[in-house]
Amino acid sequence: xxxxxxxxxxxxxxxxxxxxxxxxxxxxxxxxxxxxxxxxxxxxxxxxxxxxxxxxxxxxxxxxxxxxxxxxxxxxxxxxxxxxxxxxxxxxxxxxxxxxxxxxxxxxxxxxxxxxxxxxxxxxxxxxxxxxxxxxxxxxxxxxxxxxxxxxxxxxxxxxxxxxxxxxxxxxxxxxxxxxxxxxxxxxxxxxxxxxxxxxxxxxxxxxxxxxxxxxxxxxxxxxxxxxxxxxxxxxxxxxxxxxxxxxxxxxxxxxxxxxxxxxxxxxxxxxx
Amino acid sequence: xxxxxxxxxxxxxxxxxxxxxxxxxxxxxxxxxxxxxxxxxxxxxxxxxxxxxxxxxxxxxxxxxxxxxxxxxxxxxxxxxxxxxxxxxxxxxxxxxxxxxxxxxxxxxxxxxxxxxxxxxxxxxxxxxxxxxxxxxxxxxxxxxxxxxxxxxxxxxxxxxxxxxxxxxxxxxxxxxxxxxxxxxxxxxxxxxxxxxxxxxxxxxxxxxxxxxxxxxxxxxxxxxxxxxxxxxxxxxxxxxxxxxxxxxxxxxxxxxxxxxxxxxxxxxxxxxxxxxxx
Lengths: 273, 279
Ligand SMILES: Nc1ncnc2c1ncn2[C@@H]1O[C@H](COP(=O)(O)OP(=O)(O)OP(=O)(O)O)[C@@H](O)[C@H]1O
Ligand SMILES: [Mg+2]
What we know:
The complex is a heterodimer. By secondary structure, chain A is of the alpha/beta class. Helices cover 31% and strands 23% of the residues of chain A. Chain A is built from 8 helices and 9 strands. In chain A, helix 3 packs across helix 4 (147-159). By secondary structure, chain B is an all-alpha fold. Chain B has 2 domains: 2-52; 79-273, MetI-like (MetI-like fold, Orthogonal Bundle), CATH 1.10.3720. In chain B, 72% of the residues lie in helices and 0% in strands. In chain B, helix 3 (80-112) crosses helix 9 (231-240), helix 8 (188-225) runs parallel beside helix 9 (231-240) and helix 9 (231-240) packs antiparallel against helix 10. Chain A binds chain B through residues 77-79, 94-95, 97, 99, 101, 103-107, 114-116, 141-144, 157, 161, and chain B through 176-177, 179-186, 190, 194-195, 198-199, 201, 274-279. Bound molecules: adenosine-5'-triphosphate and magnesium ion. Magnesium ion is lined by residues 69-70 of chain A.
């Protein structure tokens, strides 16, 4: 699989390929952002942000609401024209938005293969649908799906592209706690099998610790905390290292842990499997 | 046990759904709804016939239903009605066949770029307030009084509803769908095919339904001004001989054709907009 990073949006001069050193020692790096900035009017949202993601690495990105998580993800997805600085991202990348974002006028399978080229597009689409256990729904209209099913179709659409970088913007934010647990297991399994680099934007600290290899916090336009999750699988919330990392992240996010504990949904007390 | 039992002391509860087939109230000692709906029509026609019979309505004012039916039957037997309908139908079909593609193309041009919007939409939005029928004198100057004049008037009439509804529908397509198209790497044409056309289809069909109605309206007008054939001509010709029954036949035919074309668009809607149906 060709995974070398490529120039994104060649048309934009401020958004160019990184130096060629990505070829040598650090060629396992698939995302390298250097001094990425974004301003809306006079509001500076991203301010000289540096970030690297390695091949097959699962990075969870936390941050307060409005801190610029989606802005960064959209930049990596190539959906934002106003980005400054430089970044290198894989050509093959796929996005899962917070809303499932299915085309209501296309059947489930047609949504999954949207934009896929090649004679085996449908076969790949079906395989991806099968992985999210929705093959039986391939002929359905999106309107007839439940929220969780729609989100799984969106996941299948991303997987069918066999991305080197999977960008997930709070994909489970709108789901109930039980469905979310099942989606976590599903996502963990899919990532273990396909090994894409993953950038998961989330509000949920537990979700981040349960799923990610690395957790980063975005504060004031930069990565203010970047921690590797060193907790054995299966990760349990009862684990002391889990609680320690959780406290650290919550502190970084400026959340009072005691209040947070009362507010957190029942996922807090559920192990992943 | 059934959800239908509303306790007498709980007036704030209502029953929903329909369980054990024991359909309550309603349609017990009542006629089928189709028959019921016809009842009003039958009464009206009956009253009309009665008024004609007793001389309350003069034949030269308005022929009675029986006379109208008889006259319609004669017109069918000697083939006059069929050829008139065919001529009129052709005019509408031609007008629609020319006007709808033009309107759709204009809507795409205006809907897909700022430049297109400035160039196409502004003038069309101004022109839409022209009463199309008022164009008749100009049209006659341009195309004479033949078939071309009638068809072009219909073309003008059809363009506006289709254009306006299709353009609005394109503009109403959610930006997030375009963003999705971008994120999965759809090119310009693929985006039009996968996002713009299906997204604008509901609006287009609304426009098409309005266009069908407008087309018949303009046809009636155009055919009654100066025609040598068609339904309108049949009616004007009958007017000279005070044959009110033929005029009524013409009206009825227009109504039926209008109804049929509307039904046709609805069938089209149902077939192409399946995705909108609820679960
Ligand atoms: N198109 C835009 N125009 C102006 N301001 C914007 C735009 N997009 C985002 N912003 C601003 O940038 C900031 C960051 O937005 P962003 O959506 O990245 O936040 P976020 O971290 O994803 O928040 P949340 O967790 O609530 O989704 C916000 O203050 C927002 O108002
Ligand atoms: Mg966001």
